[in-house]
Amino acid sequence: MVDHAVAAIIAGATRGAILPGDRIVEAELAREMGISRVPIREALRILESQGVVTSEPYKGIRLMEVSHARLEQVLDVRSSLEILAARRALEAGRNDKAGLATLRTARDELDVAAKRRDVYGFALADAAFHRALCVLGGNPVLSMLWESLARQVTIIGGLATLGKPMPAIVKEHDLLIKVFARGDIDEMSRELHEHIVVMSRDIDFDTIIAERIEERRRKV
């Protein structure tokens, strides 16, 4: 039930049903999901430890903000981890047939979700691709640190699809695989930084969130 509650909150945030800064009320979630408040409370505790929700006195529990500063902080750490993972993977020769097959399988899941226009599925597949890259780095500590950001990455990835076509994001992953196959560490580092940091700056998250808030207001 706790895992189900976590998934429901992440899915809602990824699709824009729960927006950054929105208050998350235990009783309402429990009623909507038809479960007790206990697993909801535990799910929120887990998500707070991962930075997905915040809890403040008199303000309650709210979904993390996706401000420019917050985004820069998350992407800065994420890109550093993935660039290091790619470096270690290439140094170890893991851009071999098996390593490339792992990334291509993850990329194909991304493509399937894009064709279905499944935002949550796409965001999960996007995260799975980058998780696979980190695993190829062969450093469990690095993977553990990346996992601590995984759910924030998933939410940001879902919101990104509201500002960039999914097929364009799939093509970015195709390029990452091609560069990884070539084995040039510096080139791979540049492409990862471009994909994770530079291209994300081109997405106007403030406008995306404002538009969703306005859409919700009109439906009330």
Could you walk me through the main structural features you see in this protein, from its secondary elements to its overall organization?
This protein is mostly helical. The chain has 2 domains: 2-65, Winged helix-like DNA-binding domain superfamily/Winged helix DNA-binding domain (Arc Repressor Mutant, subunit A), CATH 1.10.10.10; 68-203, GntR ligand-binding domain-like (Four Helix Bundle (Hemerythrin (Met), subunit A)). It is built from 10 helices and 2 strands, in the order H-H-H-E-E-H-H-H-H-H-H-H. The protein has a two-stranded antiparallel sheet. A hairpin with a 3-residue loop joins strand 1 (53-56) and strand 2. Helix 5 packs antiparallel against helix 6 (119-136), helix 5 (97-116) runs antiparallel to helix 8 and helix 6 (119-136) packs antiparallel against helix 7 (140-160). The longest helix is centred in the middle third of the chain and has 24 residues, at 68-91. It is globular.
Give a quick set of tags describing it.
Arc Repressor Mutant, subunit A, mainly alpha, 2 strands, two-stranded antiparallel ribbon, 76% helix, 220 residues, Four Helix Bundle (Hemerythrin (Met), subunit A), 2 domains
Q: Round the mean pLDDT to the nearest integer and report it.
A: 92
CATH class of the largest domain: Mainly Alpha
Find the structural class using helix and strand composition. mainly alpha
Our measurement of the CA-to-CA distance between the termini, rounded to an integer number of angstroms, reads 30 Å
Portion in helices:
over 70%
Helix/strand order = HHHEEHHHHHHH
Our count of helices gives 10
The CATH topology assignment of the largest domain is Four Helix Bundle (Hemerythrin (Met), subunit A)
Shape type: globular
